[in-house]
Amino acid sequence: MYPAMRSTSADVFRPTDARPAPGGNIGMLRWLQENLFSGWLNSYTSLVLIGFVLWVFPAVLNWLVLDATFAGDADTCRQNTGACWPFIVDKFPVLMVGVYPQELLWRPGVACLALLVLAAVTYTDRLKGAVLVVAWLLLPVFALIMIGGAFGMVEVEQSLWGGLMLSVLLALVGVIVSIPLGVLLALGRYYGSPLIKALCVGFIELVRGVPLITILFMASVMMPMFLPPEMVINNLMRIQIGMIFFSAAYMAEVVRGGLQAIPKGQTEASLALGVSPWKTIAFVVVPQALRHVLPPLIGRCIALFKDTSLVIIVGLLDFLGMIKNSAFDPEWLGFQKEAYFFAAFVYWLICYGLSLYGRALENRGASGARR
Amino acid sequence: MTTRIESQIAEDESVIEMRQVNKWYGNFHVLKDVSLSVKKGERIVICGPSGSGKSTLIRCINHLEEHQEGTITVNGTILNDKLKNITNIRREVGMVFQQFNLFPHMTILDNLCFAPVWARNMPRKEAEATACMYLERVGIAEQKDKYPGQLSGGQQQRVAIARSLCMSPSVMLFDEPTSALDPEMIKEVLDVMIELAESGMTMICVTHEMSFARLVADRVIFMDGGEIVEENTPDLFFDAPKIDRTQKFLSQILSH
Ligand SMILES: Nc1ncnc2c1ncn2[C@@H]1O[C@H](COP(=O)(O)OP(=O)(O)OP(=O)(O)O)[C@@H](O)[C@H]1O
Ligand SMILES: [Mg+2]
Q1: How many whole angstroms separate alpha carbon A88 and alpha carbon A94?
Q2: Angle (CA) A246 A251 A254, round 5°
């Protein structure tokens, strides 16, 4: 059937040995020239930037470290021109957890540990996808139970929750509830009947057309007017619902991009095997779509975490709320700068961490041969 | 009397029965009065120029495309828009695509177990055993924990064939299974298909691999412009085509 190769006395092919690529380590000067001073426009920009850094850096360094106070009280601080770090140290517990009872602090601690462990386990990729999904969905429930108390644990009123703990909790619940909701909205928009499609598009466009602040005000002030009196839900929960809706609309648009990227052949192959349309969507389409949009999805998570700082305007004492409160503590009057610097630093630290974590997840996916 | 009984049996044995099937894409008439009957164990090769409706024809059989007129029956189940009928037929009909269409986020083993577990409710253990058996048969048992992206095209297509076989279909449809492959990988896929044909599987293959057609086909069907133009045994089809359109097509594909 296939004509055999004619076997004549041919020359033997010998592959050439591979050589290492040229280059390797380049000298310092060469590096500078290639990266900072290639061409006059680049050189000019580099000089201006270096000049700027040299001009600003000493002042910042002085304030942060050289002239700063590291031990003492408010009076010691006032004698120095630099930053007052004892203030931050003194306020640290309040900034982290608000007025949460001291003796119960281990409970939010356990919840936080659970979050970190789950993130690490997700990265190692040891568990099956379905198990991970269930674990992540249960995490906010676990966190709420630990912080609020249930099953015989002492109850801690929501008015006592605050600080960074509250910010993280709002973001965590917001992200984990809004991703599935966003997936449903995106599926409705992409596959739904005209009515469902119209509803999904309507919701998405309505929410995206309104600033988060407005949504939070509406959740805080207007929602109680429309809900029947027997359905009393507290302020925190209303705010949380507002954030979930807001986030879900954006998540839906991100996921939609992922749905569009799945080749038609994928659904066809699954349907042709006799798998029902719903299971095809659940096991073939959605997992691939989510993997596809991992970078913007992580971006949305970071954005939502930063957006939680807006709850300050509806009277919740989240991290930024506590920062502001501390700045007006009569005992420590006049150290606002330190408070806001610390706030910026903590937000940056967490967001940058999330960003690095997201990138690590992506790279793992890429090197793991999952296209 | 006897003839009537015989024809009755022939009717019962036919796995796929297409009668006067018509299909349009908008105003474009893709399938024109196509009738085709495939008996159990028969191997059919469909060929024809690009755009003649070959893919559309076989994709109508498992309702990846919807036909507008005529009837299609698979194993006695009539294909209408009842989801239950469609799903039943799809479980009976395996399909292999030109682009393999393996699920890139699942390992090879998971690709094979997916449909038996979720469409037939087979216990995972049993599904894995079946999967390993078929992977052995197509010669890639040792790759079962890899992802599709780590396999060559030929290997991927063999996995795709094994994936279909895991649902123990009574018919297999092939839509140009070797056209996306490098020449050196075509043979390994054709060998699997030949082995499958020899084991008695009912097959409909859209392909231009004439050597394959000569070797395994019971009938070769030539399509052009959405119609079945000519239908014959491979020897007669290739050596003595009756219709000029067929002659022209054959001279084109055999000359290059
Ligand atoms: N979804 C569609 N909408 C409109 N026209 C289509 C669609 N799919 C296919 N067609 C047209 O129908 C005709 C038949 O297509 P089909 O894919 O069945 O051809 P084919 O014989 O398989 O060709 P090829 O050898 O290129 O695969 C072509 O002219 C094609 O342009
Ligand atoms: Mg085709």
Answers
A1: 10
A2: 140
Confidence of residue B1 (pLDDT cuts 50, 70, 90): very low
Lowest mean pLDDT among A81-95, A238-252, A274-288, B83-97: A81-95
ipTM score: 0.90
Encode A280-290: b = buried (16+ Cβ within 10 Å), e = exposed: bbebbbbbbbb
Task: Please indicate, yes or no, whether the overall pTM of this predicted structure exceeds 0.90.
Answer: no
pLDDT tens for A155-182 read: 777 778 888 989 999 999 999 999 999 9
pLDDT at A367 over 60: no
CATH class held by domain A85-100+156-370: mainly alpha
Q: What is the DSSP string of A243-293?
A: HHHHHHHHHHHHHHHHHHTS-HHHHHHHHHTT--HHHHIIIIIHHHHHHHT
Is the pLDDT at A2 greater than 80? The verdict is no
User: How many angstroms does the Cα of residue B54 sit away from the middle of ligand 2?
Assistant: 6
Average pLDDT (A281-287) is: 92
Kindly report the nearest CA distance between residue B84 and chain A, in angstroms: 10
Reduce the secondary structure of B10-26 to three states and give it as a string.
Answer: HHHHEEEEEEEEEEEEC
List chain A domain ranges: 28-66, 85-100+156-370
A235 φ/ψ angles, rounded to the nearest 5 degrees: -60, -45
CA angle A220, A327, A349 (to 5 degrees): 80
A273/B119 Cβ within 8 A:
yes
How many Å apart are CA A365 and CA A119, to the nearest integer?
Answer: 15
Q: Is B52 close to ligand 1, i.e. is its CB under 6 Å away?
A: yes
CB contact at 8 A, A362 and B139: no
Residue A133 is classified by DSSP as H
Average pLDDT over residues B66-95: 89
| Residue A302 C-alpha, separation from nearest chain B C-alpha, in angstroms | 26
Contact B192, B205 (CB under 8 A): no
> Hey, whose CA ends up nearest to atom 3 of ligand 1?
B25
Collapsing DSSP to helix, strand or coil, B162 comes out as helix
Residue B111 or A362, more confident: B111
